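Annotators were shown the component list below and the corresponding predicted structure, then asked to write short factual statements about the assembly.
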Amino acid sequence: MFYDGNVSAERKEEKKQSKYAIDVENLRVRYETSSEVVMAVNGIDLQLKRGVTLGIVGETGAGKTTSMLSLMNLIETPPGVVEADHIYVNGTDVQRLSAAELCRIRGNEIAMIFQDPMTSLNPVMKVGEQISESIMLHGRVSKKDAMERAARMLEIVGISPSRASEYPHQFSGGMRQRVGIAIALACKPEILIADEPTTALDVTIQAQVLKLMKQLKTEYGTSMILITHDLGVVARMCDEVAVMYAGRIVEQGTLKQIFNETLHPYTEGLFNSLPNIHNRVASLKPIPGLMPDPANLPQGCAFAKRCPYAAQACYAEQPARKTYEDGHSVWCTAYRDAEFHIKRKG
Amino acid sequence: MQEAILKVTNLKKYFKTKKGTVHAVDGVSFSIEKGKTLGIVGESGCGKSTTGRAILRLVEPTDGEVIFEGIDVTKADKKQLSALRRDMQIVFQDPFSSVNPRMTVSQLIAEPLVVNKIYKGRGSKQQIEDRVLELMDTVGLARRLYNSYPHELDGGRRQRIGIARALAMNPKFIVCDEPVSALDVSIQAQILNLMKELQNSLQLTYIFITHNLSVVNHFADEIAVMYLGSLVEKAPVKELFDHPMHPYTQALLSAIPVPEITENEEEILIKGEITSPVNLPEECRFYSRCSYACELCKKGRPELQEVRPGHFVACRRIHDVRMEEKRI
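Structure shown to annotators:
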């Protein structure tokens, strides 16, 4: 037993009162090494409503994965240093929890699907056992019952239960990712964090896995955070979107707001640099330059150097959040001018 | 019509393994005109990379003909081959694992010049240095990176080194094997634009191997779709995207997530996964996953047939498929 009854009752009360599945304020994560300090996440606020899929979009090194790992308290400290005003998962501040209490929450209330299905599975453990392991950890179930449930999970993700006694290397990439999904869903978590779940897969297999995740979401009402760099996947899966750049959120809104009423110059740049199969153009418009080194971030807006709209003020100060009436938020100094708008048409 | 710079006929590459023969490339034929790009598209394990390598004889083809400017590459002797290799180059997917991490940028770019002994005798050192700097300018690498090591650079710059190495010998033809797959989208667009500019200014012919259909749509003149070692469809790019005919191509196109909000987009999901290319039965390679398959499909492999001008499809059920033609 991880818990005594009193704490459980308290937790239930917290859960009932919380409006959001996840509520994070001012999350900062840095990695301190002997030679440098890498500022991975620099103050993000994030609210995940229940039953909603939130997409977190950004390029390599934007801090997407780091911020999600810190929600589950999975950042290794040291070298990591995690600070936040609060990190509420289902109404509980995970920063205050003991290791045993965290164990109870992970897998049970919040689970994660990792990008690389080969490295996130144990290569010397049969897949059925890997799934039943998490079931047994979170409920008082006999090994036999747990194995039965593991077989059922395999069936749900489209793998024949007869393969439960095989090892990860005997499966293809797509099937391994399904095993990862089966593990994550084994305890029917209320919150699912999927970190680039289909990036390592072929498009036809990707379509199968995305469809499966969508089905499971409607079936269990799971709240989901989907980390991806693929705006196409976002369009298919998400209700809301947050765009990250150099450890900060630069734009946040509903899917429609981000796609059709784009506000931030970086979001615009992402759309322009994507080849679109519906619209063949002579030349793509890449974003010039590179993302700044997170160990050496500029004082002002981190995107200013690559931004076609950058003015003097952008280099001097951090952009403040501007939220419109419809809930669409942007972090860009240029919007202090009420007349400012980007050129991308919706 | 211009004459083909490269003509591949019935190219085969089998690998013998303990479990049986792997039919990695199984009778592939196509040709490319000078200055054009052929996109070879398919999923992991369909044999697209092996095709690219067999053309350059980086793996020895099992059978078939590869005629490059009138010379059969598959029969070329060592001396002919080393001359051919100057004209035929390759750019690899992972720009980090394809270069020696202990060599500097300038050493890496100079390597092909040194190996091929392009500059000889006195003053050759200076000539090589000049050429390396020229190549760095061409691919957009800042001269200050001359003595940097690849691990100090980001993926986009590393891929620029790969391109500079390929360009060092002034090739006519380059196999680009997933050159942008490992890069972030904003960097991907930079590299694609660079490759397009180079093609125009240097009159290059490309084979562009990728799993990303939206990238080839942007880049290629003609597209060949591969499945389990065979071409299943080949057509000019616009024709292929407007009228995909092979059931596999249709499914592939509908599976691409498009960065647009669309209402109720129809998805054609194909069941199962690519079958193992070991000891394949003599039936249509797509048989087990195809929703149109019938008994007829089990009788040998279908040949590529021209169904519209320039549009080739290998499918026996083409008339049934076409009736229900699904456009993207």
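Statements collected:
1. The longest helix of chain A spans residues 203-220.
2. The two ends of chain A are 54 Å apart (CA to CA).
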